[in-house]
Amino acid sequence: MKVGDVDFGALISSIQTDEARHSQQGEPTIKLLVEHGRKDVAQQLVDHMFWRSWRLFALLTGLSMDYYTPLEHRGHSFKEFMREWICKQFLDQFRDFGLEKPWYWDEHFLPELDWYHHALQLGIWYWRPTVWWNPDAGVAPEERDWLEEKYPGWHDNFGGHWDVIATNLREGRPEATLPETFPMICNLCHVPVVAPAGYRAGKLASPLPRVLDRDGRRYVFCSAPCQWVFEQAPRRFQGHTTIIDRFLGGQIQPPTMEGALAYMGLSPEEMGRDATDYAWAHAAPRDRTATHG
Amino acid sequence: MALFPLQALFEGDLVVLLVPVDDGDPMTVVADKVAHHVVDHRVAARDRPLRSGTTGGRCPTTPRW
Ligand SMILES: [Fe+2]
Ligand SMILES: [Zn+2]
């Protein structure tokens, strides 16, 4: 981007007006539905789309705020941001319309604020050839201290995985930090199934994916709300296949990691690499016994 | 003997994996095939639990078009 780049300015303006229109459609729609006695439909729409939005929001904004933003520029953690703007302001808005918080709020959504995006960060970094940006690990020693402060227990739940990865990098085994197979993908949100991380963090009762056999096809879901969204409107979702379904169904040839990356249209230059060329792994580790007794 | 895809998770790991196994594999071999992707990659060998593999069952069936 250069000063006077008219095309870029026009692009941003177009995106902004587009998003402004979208953001203004929800409230009148809900008001109309409630006025006409269809609060149940309004509630169902909110419950459905809040969960699907959360899945992507945690991935994009959670990682950007807690891992990709340089430490000196971080204000709130992602969890603090979610608590203030979503759990408080956003919920208040729906309560004003006479709607309730989604059914999964306390049992599924709130506990995820402590673990879900941390698991995605590890997964996206590990499967970095499958993304088109260069993921920043964001786990240099001082960044780990910040994560432990904002998310007590982070080191026990996630730091150990990063320790194994960092050891491989320091000892000259970068190939051991790259994937040789795929994660299972949720048939609703299309995000990898990281329930085992939630289970390990003590926030989920089971590490297993949810499995649904329906009309001769087996579906896998990452969470109870994803399965619920699917079962609310199966005809809407049942025809779609995840990248793993396509891999197993023989649509991706050759059926290898390389074949799948080519299917995704990712050339070697486009595949993600560590953003700092592994500098974080070579930073001197802190003695954790002082802060982590 | 035929290859089939298993959705598998390794105790202590963060994600459910797709792992090809053979239907003639004894459970110890299946566990080793799962561990291959995890131990010393995301979970340290010293933290490896005694009962290493837990399988989540067969993968989604090939969808019909
Ligand atoms: Fe939009
Ligand atoms: Zn899902």
Q: How does this model look, in words?
A:
The complex is a heterodimer of chains A (293) and B (65). Chain A has 293 residues and is mostly helical. Chain A has one domain (26-239): Orthogonal Bundle (Ribonucleotide Reductase, subunit A), CATH 1.10.620. In chain A, 55% of the residues lie in helices and 3% in strands. Chain A is built from 13 helices and two strands, in the order H-H-H-H-H-H-H-H-E-E-H-H-H-H-H. Chain A has helices at residues 6-35, 39-68, 78-96, 105-112, 116-126, 141-150, 154-170, 195-200, 224-232, 234-237, 243-248, 257-263, 279-282, and strands at residues 210-214, 217-221. In chain A, strands 1-2 form a two-stranded antiparallel ribbon. In chain A, strand 1 and strand 2 (217-221) form a beta hairpin. In chain A, helix 1 packs antiparallel against helix 2 and helix 2 crosses helix 5 (116-126). The longest helix of chain A is centred in the first third of the chain and has 30 residues, at 6-35. Chain A starts with 5 loop residues before the first helix and ends in an 11-residue tail after the last helix. Mean pLDDT of chain A is 93; it is low at 289-293. Chain B has a domain at 3-46: TmoB-like (Ubiquitin-like (UB roll)). Chain B has one helix spanning 27-35; strands spanning 3-10, 17-22, 53-58. Chain B has 65 residues and is α+β, with helices and mostly antiparallel strands. Chain B has a three-stranded antiparallel β-sheet. In chain B, 14% of the residues lie in helices and 31% in strands. The chains are: A mainly alpha (293), B alpha+beta (65). At the A-B interface, helix 5, helix 7, helix 8, strand 2 and helix 11 of A face strand 1, strand 2 and strand 3 of B.
Widest beta sheet: strand line-up of chain B? 2-1-3
Question: Structural class of chain B, please?
Answer: alpha+beta
Identify the CATH class of chain A: Mainly Alpha
Q: Helix/strand-derived class of chain A?
A: mainly alpha
Poorly predicted runs of chain B: 61-65
